[in-house]
């Protein structure tokens, strides 16, 4: 069937508009999210297991790092969904959040892009739903046997934060300091630092801490 010139012109215009929108999103991400040096070479399959969240760090807030310690000990489960997709399941007493990512660059396991909105069952102590939004990138800043460092950046939500994961429910102070210094060397300012899973001097979990994601500012009470 012959296609009229106006149909072809419309198709070209639609394609151009879609390309412009994609470029705008890409520019917005680059403007907010720094050029991060993620780890290039590692075996992604070795990360597909259960991890404890031992530290959550917020960036972008100048004025020095405020450190707090809490008893809450979230767990992250990583799972591959084929060759180019994976799932991150975050579990804490307040509920569960399920993130989906794709790997857009062939043979580059250190850069993930969010797919769709996270599925969340998080709720505060009064049963009010906690909304979790994330549309952005995840960078694998470090992947070794003893710990995994993931930095999340969302231009849309203007959020930049890092989680430090360990196969055990603790990580030595020396290793945590090393991770923090690595992040600073790569241009990530440390503001709020939350060390989890208890430990000496930790504050007991209380009603004030409905969710670690809520406390870290990467989730909010639903309207």
Structure, explained:
The protein folds into 2 domains: 1-32; 44-221, Calycin beta-barrel core domain (Lipocalin, Beta Barrel), CATH 2.40.128. The strands form 2 sheets. The chain has an 8-stranded antiparallel barrel with strand order 1-3-4-5-6-9-10-11. Strands 8-13 form a two-stranded antiparallel ribbon. The chain starts with a helix and ends with a strand. It is of the alpha+beta class and 223 residues long. The model is unreliable at 5-29 and 199-209 (pLDDT under 50). The chain is globular, with a radius of gyration of 20 Å. The longest helix has 28 residues, at 5-32. The chain has 3 helices and 13 strands.
Q: What structural class do helix, strand and pairing data support?
A: alpha+beta
How would you write the strand order of the largest sheet? Answer: 1-3-4-5-6-9-10-11
Mean pLDDT, all residues: 80
Q: Measure the end-to-end span.
A: 51 Å
Count the DSSP helices. 3
Q: Say which CATH homologous superfamily of the largest domain is assigned.
A: Calycin beta-barrel core domain
Shape: globular
The CATH first-level class of the largest domain comes to Mainly Beta
User: Which regions have little confidence, pLDDT < 50, spanning 5+ residues?
Assistant: 5-29, 199-209
CATH topology of the largest domain: Lipocalin
The domain count comes to 2
Number of strands: 13
Order of helices and strands: HEEEEEEEEEEEHEHE
Note the main sheet: 8 strands, antiparallel, barrel
User: Which range does the strand content fall in?
Assistant: 25-35%
Based on the coordinates given, report the CATH architecture of the largest domain: Beta Barrel
| Rg, Å, rounded | 20 Å
Residues in helices, as a percent range: 10-25%
